[in-house]
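Support request, please re-run this one:
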Amino acid sequence: MTTVHAYAATESNGKLNPFEYELGDLDPHQVDITVESCGICHSDLSMLGNEWGLSKYPFVPGHEVSGKIAAVGESVTHLSVGDTVGLGWHSDYCMTCDQCMSGNYNCCPSATGTIVGRHGGFADVVRAAAASVVKLPDELNTRKAGPLFCGGITVFNPFVQLGISPTDSVAVLGIGGLGHLAIQFAKAWGCQVTALTSPGKEEEAKEMGAHEVLNSRDPQAIKSAYGKFDVILSTINVPQEWNTYLNALKPQGKLHFLGAVLEPLNIGAMPLIGGQRSVSGSPVGSPVTIRKMLEFSARHQIEPITEHFPMSEVNEAIEHLKSGDARYRVVLDR
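Re-run finished. Output below.
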C-alpha cells in the first residue's frame, strides 16, 4: 500500500487542504508517478466548482503532471522506474472501442479523466494507465513541461487533425494560457500568424511569434480582416459575435473551438453557406499526438510561459489564476 499526500477540497469551490489516501496494489498495466510539478488549468477550476457536473468530493485537482516513474506494473514495457514523464487530462482508455482501436484514444467514450472520479496530481504521487503516460524529451524543462500535457496538446492537436498547412494564415483568438502556446506552435509550423487579443498584449504576442496583432474588442479591426484567415483557433471561454469571425475566414476556412464556451453559439447559416466555411472543435490529443507535440516543442524550443508556486501555496496559486493576472500558466512545484 502507498500512502499519497495530496491537497483536496471537500466541497464545491472549497479551499484545498492536506489530504491523505491509500493506493491499492498496482495493476499490471499501470504506473505510479512521483510528482515534481503540476500545472493549474482552468479545467481544474471548473472541476473544483463542479461547473460540468462531474466532480466528486473530496476532490484532488491536477492533470498537468510532470515527474518520474516510481513504480511500473509487470506488463509495462515502454516505461521504466526513473523515466521522466508527463500525464495529462486522460489517465486511462478502454483500449477496445472503435476510437481506441483506430488510434483516437482522446475520443474514447469511456476514457478516464485524471481528475474525474479519481484523484489528480496536486499530490506527491499519482497513478495512471501506462498507455496515457508519455516520456519527456531530455531537451524539455521538467518544471515547465506539465502545461504541455493539457494546454499545449489542446492547441497542438488541431494542427494535426485539421491538416493545417505551413502556407495557411492562422489567427489565434485569446492570448492566455492556451493562446500563447498556439501562437508559438503556429509560428514554428510556418504559418502566417495573427493574434486576436485585447489591448495591452501586442508586444508580448509579437515576441511569441505573431506577425500581426488585431484588437479583438474592436469590431472594425476584425472587419478589416474579412476573408483573411484559413483557420481561427478560438482559445477563449466567453461569448463573442461569432458571425464577425466567420466572415474573417477565407472560403472553406474553419472556426475551431478549443476554449470551452458554455453558452450556445449564435451563428448564422449564411456566412457558412456562402463561403463553404465550417465550425469545429477538438479536445486534447492522443498519446501519439502528445509525443509528436513534445518532439516538436523540443526541436523548436517551445515552452509555456510559467509562474511557479510551491505546492503548499496551492490556494494562493489558484486565486492568482482566478484573478486573470497569470502570465500565462501557473505551476505548482514540490
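Residues 2-150+303-333 form a domain with the Quinone Oxidoreductase; Chain A, domain 1 fold (CATH 3.90.180.10). The mean pLDDT is 97.
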